[in-house]
Design brief:
The chain is mainly beta. Helices cover about 10% and strands about 35% of the residues. The protein contains 10 helices and 43 strands. Strands 7, 10, 11, 12, 14, 17 and 19 form a 7-stranded antiparallel beta sheet that branches. α5 links the parallel β5 and β6. α2 crosses α6. The chain is globular, with a radius of gyration of 31 Å. The termini are far apart. The relative contact order is 0.07. About 0% of the residues have low confidence.
Length: about 800
């Protein structure tokens, strides 16, 4: 395979490498055999293979290790020195026919072909910025537009798909036994993003005229490197300036005659034989903590409550059989690989429809929500179950206007998930040909209407209001300590289409406020404080709401002594979920123009659906609390990692004779700020990626006699998720600690988690951990979190 390597650039004789040099190794293909082997390698598309599938194979990484030793290979860019040269191995994901075809909205630009590819270009540029010479090895099944990567590389090698033996690469890189680059281009190499059909002029055809289906080799599509080009050590580095290649500014696909002017003109192929691979199909559910599982394109994938199996529809393995078992909430979705949002407003402007083909095998037994996400919790969804075709052996096409998702809350400027199915019922169907189609391509006269989608709401099951009484005391909806601190002793007054009562179904305590609305006109309730309330010492108001899923707006309003404030839609703020409850935090500073020293009225008004109609239904409001954005005093910090300091009665605790281990983005230390005793555990997270800490019990613990676990934490107000994880002898389960009700003591919040929720064998608990602090937008949160007072219910030895 050494003979197939083509050296395109070798500035200042960056190659051959010297064995005395250290190598900074980076890039997506540095240790990736799939990118070396390409399609039709064990599997059709060449995907889902691992190193274990190719015994004794070598990657760039293992070949370099064999050549210069692992101690001379650096993977931390901050650890390089003046004797370090960068080797950046990059390349396309494997593909075969259909999947690898260039789609109309795509170009030959490697860095933009997939969102994941841009990281390879950034790796090259980062190494160059560090002052290193950069050697780029590019694996691909075709020539591609690589001008910016070549500009930032000192040496650039077109390695094609060399197979399993990367030692053939390092032999040439280090000129082992005099080996040289002998490969020459068997394809013309493009200088622009859409030079897709440039071919050499045949030498055996006199007066050859370039046919209309090919691009001319002169003018706009003149190649960067001609057919037969290739450098060698013996032939020298060449004289062409390859540091300042012009960059093609084209920002629209090769199948488009001009860029979108805010209105899409071609379909966005999401999942079908024409899809470009930008979107990854995944499954997840409540029972696996919503951890995404990539769906296999070759074999069955099973999350436990939703499973998939690839099937043939319009092409080979271009559709999937989906089965929901109805035992727990689960979802199947297609999402950009990097999960980041992209601006697809042009498709909304084009009056597009989301279209998918489906063959029903079992009708949904409960609501089946069809959703689009704009980086969770931003989303729009509709219950598609009543509008699906009947069980049949025939495929049908369902079309839903994007406008319906927009009315339900979807923001297309940050779309990251164009398709999602969510249900807790049973259902089975074949699914394929998912796409977003502009009206100019398909007028979609047969599409569902938003009125039909929003008018049918079997998903809108009524909230269980428990025992209802006619009390209108506002304190019922407040957290006890907040009601006491503020002296809340007044009643609420309901107006127009609303009534106010008390429900025995509570987020915390024994009762909550029950706002009922008849759906006909404006209405809500308010309270007039006497005396006037001073809220200037608080930063946020927190509250819990249980409501029908079609609730899209509920106004919270404050009036001061002289001004009536503009209301804020509670549901426009991020939330976290606990059972039927959603917990919101609203900054008081958002009430611009209101004097928080003189609050006269507070009220909840005008519940509405995403279609703007008043909602007919019951809404529970509870646990209203006023909070401050306090800074946690970490006290004296030590490097002690003994978990005993985080347990109740740390000096005599029988559970914690273990040391914690922090991973990835987290560190673990000890703080002198404690809820009880003299110290607490301090977990620090840098916000970059996954991370946390765990501890393995010295002996497996039997917790079967305990009913719950208490954990006390002090954390920034922005913390919305913190996973607490227990492992038994076979598996582990994580729960979001902040999804459970809590009580407050100073900076501390005390949570109680039922052990049964973990679904583990409590007789064999072997490990405990805390993981992945996140904010309400599901982003990792850079934070310091104190953890203390861990104990297993009241029967634990004290």
């Amino acid at each position: 395979m050494s003979k197939s390597l083509v050296l395109l650039k070798n500035k200042a004789n960056a190659l051959p490498l010297k064995t005395t040099q250290k190598v900074y190794l980076a890039g997506s293909a540095a240790n990736n055999l799939q990118k070396q082997t390409g399609g039709w390698s064990l599997t059709w598309q060449g995907t889902e293979n691992t190193l274990a599938d190719f015994p004794n194979a070598t990657t760039v990484k293992t070949a370099l290790e064999a050549q210069i030793g692992s101690s001379n290979i650096i993977t931390d860019i901050n650890a390089v020195d003046t004797n370090t040269i960068a080797v950046i191995a990059i390349g396309e994901d494997p593909y075969a026919e259909f999947v690898g075809d260039l789609k109309d909205h795509q170009t030959l630009d490697f860095a933009t072909l997939k969102s994941s590819y841009s990281a390879d270009l950034e790796a090259i540029k980062a190494a160059k910025a560090k002052g290193m010479q950069v050697v780029t090895i590019f694996f691909s099944g075709r020539p591609m537009y690589m001008n910016e990567a070549i500009n930032n590389s000192d040496a650039f090698i077109a390695a094609w798909l060399p197979g399993t033996e990367a030692t053939g690469i390092t032999d040439v890189l280090y000129q082992v036994n005099g080996k040289d680059f002998t490969g020459r281009l068997s394809y013309t190499w493009p200088n622009t993003k859409c030079s897709t059909t440039i071919n050499r002029t045949p030498t055996n055809i006199p007066n050859y005229v370039t046919p209309s289906f090919e691009q001319s080799l002169v003018g706009e599509h003149a190649p960067l490197f001609a057919y037969g080009y290739g450098l060698s050590y013996a032939g020298g580095a060449g004289t062409t300036d390859l540091d300042n290649l012009p960059l093609d500014s084209r920002n629209y696909g090769c199948g488009q005659s001009e860029p979108d002017t805010g209105v899409a003109t071609i379909p966005l192929e999401v999942y079908n034989r024409n899809a470009g691979g930008e979107f990854v199909m995944r499954i997840s559910g409540a029972n696996n903590g919503w951890v995404a599982i990539p769906v296999s394109g070759q074999t069955e994938t099973n999350q436990g409550n939703v499973s998939t199996r690839p099937i043939n529809y319009q092409g080979q393995y271009d559709a999937v059989n989906v089965k929901f078992d109805g035992q727990a909430l689960a979802q199947l979705y297609l999402q950009y690989a990097d999960e980041q949002g992209q601006d697809k407003t042009s498709y909304l402007n084009a009056e597009s429809t989301l279209q998918f083909d489906i063959r029903m095998l079992q009708a949904p037994t409960k609501a089946l929500n069809l959703a689009q996400h704009c980086v969770w919790p931003c989303l729009g969804q509709v219950n598609i179950a009543p509008h699906l075709p009947a069980v049949s052996a025939t495929w049908s096409t369902v079309k839903v206007p994007l406008q319906c998702f927009a009315e339900a809350g979807m923001n297309f400027s940050t779309m990251n998930t164009p398709f999602l199915f969510l249900t807790e019922g049973e259902a089975q169907f074949d699914l394929g040909n998912i796409r977003i189609v502009p009206k100019s391509i398909d007028p979609a006269a047969d599409a569902l209407t938003c009125a039909a989608l929003f008018g049918t709401n079997p998903n809108d099951t009524p909230i269980d209001v428990g025992t209802v009484t006619d009390s209108t005391a506002l304190a019922v909806g407040f957290r006890d300590e907040a009601a006491n601190a503020l002296g809340i002793n007044v009643n609420g007054t309901a107006l127009n289409s609303a009534t106010l009562r008390t429900s025995s179904n509570a987020y915390q305590g024994t009762s909550s406020l029950l706002l009922s609305h008849n759906g006909t006109d404006w209405g809500g309730f308010f309270t007039e404080f006497n005396p006037i309330m001073d809220l200037s010492g608080y930063d946020n108001i927190e509250l819990a709401i249980a409501a029908p899923s079609s609730l899209s707006a509920l106004e919270l309003k404050f009036d001061d002594a002289t001004n009536a404030a503009l209301p804020k839609n509670i549901l426009s703020y991020p939330s976290r979920t606990s059972g039927i409850w959603k917990i919101y935090t609203i900054p008081l500073k958002d009430y611009v123009g209101v004097d928080m020293k003189q609050i006269r009225n507070m009220g909840f008004w005008n519940p509405k659906t995403s279609a703007g109609a008043y909602l007919k239904g019951d809404i529970l409001i509870d646990d209203i609390n006023l909070t401050k954005n306090t800074t946690i005093d970490l006290g004296t910090i030590t490097e002690d990692k003994a978990l005993t300091v985080g347990f109740h009665d740390e000096a005599n605790n029988p559970w914690a004779t273990i040391t914690g281990t922090a991973l990835n983005s987290a560190t673990l230390r000890t703080s002198s700020t404690a809820y009880s005793g003299n110290a607490s555990l301090l977990m620090t997270h840098n916000g970059a990626d996954w991370g946390g800490f765990f501890g393995d019990f010295t002996t497996v613990q039997d917790l079967s006699s305990y009913s719950s676990m208490k954990v006390v934490i002090a954390a920034p107000p922005a913390l919305a998720k913190l996973e607490i994880k227990l492992d038994d002898a076979n598996t582990g389960t994580g729960k979001n600690l902040l999804s459970y009700p809590n009580t407050t003591s100073g900076i501390w919040k005390i949570y109680t988690v039922p052990l049964a929720d973990f679904g583990l064998d409590l007789k064999q608990i072997k490990a405990l951990g805390f993981w992945h602090p996140k904010d309400a937008n599901d982003a990792y949160l850079a934070s310091d979190i104190l953890i203390d007072g861990i104990q297993f219910d009241a029967s634990q030895p004290q």
